Amino acid sequence: MENRKFLTFARTSIKNLFRKPATVGYPYQPADYPERMRGHVEIKTDNCILCGLCMRSCPPGAIRIDRADATWTINRFDCVQCGSCVNACPKECLTLLPGYTQPASSKTEDVYQCPKRPTPAPPKRPA
Amino acid sequence: MAKRSIIPFGPQHPVLPEPIHLDLVLEDETVVEAVPSIGFIHRGLEKLVEKKDFKQYVYIAERVCGICSCGHGMGYCEAVEHVMNIQVPPRAEYLRTIWIEMSRIHSHLLWLGLLADALGFESLFMESWRLREKILSMMDATTGGRIIFSVNCVGGVLKDITPEMLREISQTMDDMERELKPIMETFLHDYTVQSRLCGLGVLTRDQAILYGAVGPMLRASGVEYDVRMTGYGAYGDLEVAPITAADGDSYARCEVRLKELIQSFRLIREAIGKIPEGPIAVPVKGSPSGEYFMRIEQPRGEAIYYVKGNGTKNLDRFRLRTPTTSNIPPMLETVKGCQLADVPLLVLTIDPCISCTER
Amino acid sequence: MDCKNIIEVIEIQDFYQRVIEMKMHSWRLAQICAVRIDSGYEMSYSFCKDYDMITLRLLVGMEEKISSITQIYPCAFLQENEASELFGVQIESLDPNYHHKLYRIEKETPFKEKG
Q: Is residue C110 one of the residues assigned to a domain?
């Protein structure tokens, strides 16, 4: 084979001896997350109207809503951080923020209490 | 006739973290035949399309595989858009193109690293992956995910790339191209690498067509076929030409992928230069009815997305023919007649992705 | 670039003849796909050459047996096995035939019934 060379990598190898490491000393040094990173879902409960669009749009079914108790529940271990709920939310109370969920030995759910709202009165029938 | 023995290869093998099993029929050290079996990780994701909303399914399509994620999302969306006759805004097409080219760079660098690892060239492997980290950070910054982008949606894309980010991407491409030079030099000209790759696992042009090879595997056998030439996405406006090599051996496959990296750097810069202003998505009304076969060029080769809608929000059928499905038969052909010690390398040269294949 | 992407419905008696012609003109087998329809199955065999793609569409009855094309295109074995395993399409003289062992799944022909 023409163009066969020896020790082509020597230069890089020697350079690497004196270069500072390309890796980060995690966990002693914090990881640097970019602003747009899809890490976990946060809810601003004040604005939530418990409409249930996020629950229906969630591909793995990680979100559950209980209208009677006015709770918004997420199983963070089922969540795949796709952002489908964030796009579906009409009140824009869901956001995806950087930072992953801490690993754990069992799946748990996070329950958020939303303000209780009076059940909307049934639409009045024209007399 | 020499005595034949059968050696199992895989499903767990150090060279690739994915489960493919080969029964290798050997005569002394030479492989006579290889019988493949897959099926360890079949998840039935194609069936899920009947249960999920077609807009929701994008998120499932892009989770079929980690490495080809962006392409799967894009391919599925383009197929549905063809069925529904949706005209995607040009800016969205450009953004998709930039992202899929970025994922091509990341996939090829991953493969190069794995190849170096299979050769036992550990520091070259580290060097390739160090470079790959740059593109991963860039993807993280623009889409929010390191490999699962979740930016495609039916009708366009969900996120825009700001002008500052575009400049940064362009800058990163220049840096990476410069840093790729020494790595490329080693892969193409180093004595050790050449002695492992040259003349190994030759697939002739006719064989490649007969056995249905796709992607870099097909192009390394001298066939000019690159689905990007059909002009989906923004490729119609960009200058794309298939990169081929004549020899059809493992070295040719490595060469094709390296040159495609350079091509991708150029394509991204070109796309950034030409990207038009405008909306990034159009609203989608109604449900798909009809069928379409969409072809797109994934980093690993041509992938086919078949979508059949029945007018409801659940599709009738989604079929994903991944590049590896097509590349397994030619790989079995290249393995015949090689030495047992070369089998891991040959399995690797098709850039196998078994998760994709089984869906 | 303009490229063909067409679906051609074809009868079973012309099918094998057509596939052999495809091979003689060095078309590449791109994909095989089974779809469940009310009366049985829809088998789609796609072939590519240059940038054109032709899909041959075969309508197969529920209990109808079809012959494998692995004698013509040996690379069809993976996808034909998949069709017979997931959908239960009855394909004869498949070589190699995995006999429902390609995918290690509990349920036989899981894609056969809707839903």
A: no
Nearest Cα residue in chain B from C107: B44
Q: ipTM of this complex > 0.95? A: no
Q: Is the Cβ pair C1, B321 closer than 8 Å? A: no
pLDDT tens readout for residues C17-55: 888 888 888 888 888 888 888 888 888 888 888 888 888
Q: Which of the following CATH numbers is that of domain A50-115: 3.40.50.2300, 3.90.950.20, 3.30.70.3270, 3.20.20.370?
A: 3.30.70.3270
Q: Buried b vs exposed e over A105-118: b needs ≥16 C-beta within 10 Å? A: eeeeeeeeebeeee
Q: Provide the residue ranges of all domains of chain A, joining segments of one domain with +.
A: 50-115
Q: Is residue C108 part of a domain?
A: no
User: What would the pLDDT profile of B19-67 be if each residue is shown by its tens digit?
Assistant: 888 888 888 888 888 888 887 888 888 888 888 888 888 888 888 888 8
Residue of C nearest to B211 (CA): C75
Asked if C33 and B46 come within 8 Å (Cβ–Cβ), the reply is no
CB contact under 8 Å between B140 and A37, yes or no, is yes
Burial C80-101, CB ≥16 within 10 A → b, else e = bbbbbbbbbbebeebeebbeee
Give the domain CATH number at C85. 3.30.460.80
Measured CA to CA, the distance from residue A10 to residue A20 in angstroms comes to: 18
- Identify residues of B whose CB sits under 8 angstroms from chain A CBs: 52-53, 56-57, 59-60, 63, 121, 123-124, 127, 130, 133, 137, 140-145, 148, 150, 153, 158-159, 182-183, 185-186, 188-191, 194, 198
